[in-house]
């Protein structure tokens, strides 16, 4: 299979702010709409929307607000949805620790990051103290 | 200069239109050996020829240009239907390359050579495009078949009022277990079933990952309000499970499907008795 | 002020039917309102219908577990009914199993479950 080396193309991107409680609900709806457009199965839609919900709440709670960018991506014949969360908050000092189940610095259950990673097909976390946090998740249609 | 060439090509193609199409159709038809009627080929190629002229006029020789959109979509359709009918990629691409052969005699003047070479490049591009589309369509067909196979190999059956079961046969991988899980949970809802039995008598081996999936299915069923029993755990598999250190926790397991069914029936009886609507059972 | 999820009383059972995608604040409010209503009404059971919910994330999942625990302390049993298959599969993947929460396929079975648990006395899980 060559799909591993084929470039990822992006389309229908939507960007929205995550600054208030209502934005978490709106983020879920935006992701759901694009996941439906990308023809993700119902279970995969649910997984991606749930991951986005966790990450949006993280952006709000730990990052002090930020932005979400959702786009439909294609690689070869596969279609998927990519969701990127960005904030300029305090950042995460220890990434491995943050991805451990049950570890939490706030009011959550500590399942946000690790759970989102399990729910997505691809997961990327970039963060450093004082540099903010960026999380990217991708879910491919089966 | 490229402009002159495409102008020259355009006038040539427009003037010789009917003749070229006729020769194109006959060249292509002869290679397809009667598997498609000449009338169909005539229709396809006439449309394509028309679109090609329009594309050359608006977009010149750049096949990546938007002007070639119509040509591409016609080619996509053509390759797809050819792929479905079982033609080889070569036969499909030849449909495009044949136009070169047809044009060759007409472009005999020396100043036409450059134009011909340019046009040949256009046709090469388009030919490759059909090959690509052809391959993509075949891939789609294969993955659709794989999916059908998956669906067929995992029937969820109603065993009793309120009890559904899945007899699993063959090797379990992640994708398949996922499908089983989805179908089983959906049938709980559809059948209003409070009990599910996953029978793994026909599963040759269970590794950590498969055991994990079975566990997840049981937990998901429980969250929906149903009880899930795993039956048909053969001695070797029981040994593997213990050796791998997989924790089956408080999941109900039974040696045979019959035991599991008896267990489920007893549970339903107990519930009905407790709810005061028993006595009939 | 955000909307609040209505809590209905039928006999000695409180019924909460969540019909819309909940904001976090509404989740917190519901937790508070429900505890208060259990005390006020002396209800023996709580049924939370989530059949309309398209997703349950860890925040809502935790709320369900907390409500079950709180109501048990207050002498009422909680049953969560109508979880969709896709939601159940997602929750498992997320790492939640709602261990201490009673569940049922639908409202009818949920109420039956409550009736049984009251006849049987305190439940063991």
UniProtKB/TrEMBL annotation, chain A:
Pfam family, one: HATPase_c
Region named Disordered: 1-21
Annotated InterPro entries: Anti-sigma-factor_SerPK, HATPase_C_sf, HATPase_dom
Annotated Histidine kinase/HSP90-like ATPase domain residues: 43-142
Domain of life, per lineage: Bacteria
Keyword Membrane attached: no
Keywords: Kinase, Serine/threonine-protein kinase, Transferase
Designated name of the protein: Anti-sigma regulatory factor
Keyword Ribonucleoprotein found: no
From TrEMBL, chain B:
Keyword S-adenosyl-L-methionine: no
Protein name, per record: STAS domain-containing protein
InterPro entries: Bact_StressResp_Reg (IPR051932), RsbRD_N_dom (IPR025751), STAS_dom (IPR002645), STAS_dom_sf (IPR036513)
Taxonomic lineage from the root: Bacteria, Bacillati, Actinomycetota, Actinomycetes, Kitasatosporales
Any Pfam family: STAS
STAS domain: residues covered: 153-264
Gene3D superfamilies assigned to the protein according to its UniProt record, in alphabetical order: STAS domain (3.30.750.24)
Organism from which the protein derives: Actinacidiphila acididurans
Protein keywords: Phosphoprotein
Transmembrane domains' residue ranges: none
UniProtKB/TrEMBL annotation, chain C:
STAS domain boundaries: 3-114
SUPFAM superfamilies the record matches: SpoIIaa-like
Gene3D superfamilies documented for this protein: STAS domain
Superkingdom per UniProt: Bacteria
Name of the protein in question: STAS domain-containing protein
Organism listed in the record: Actinacidiphila acididurans
Taxonomic lineage: Bacteria, Bacillati, Actinomycetota, Actinomycetes, Kitasatosporales
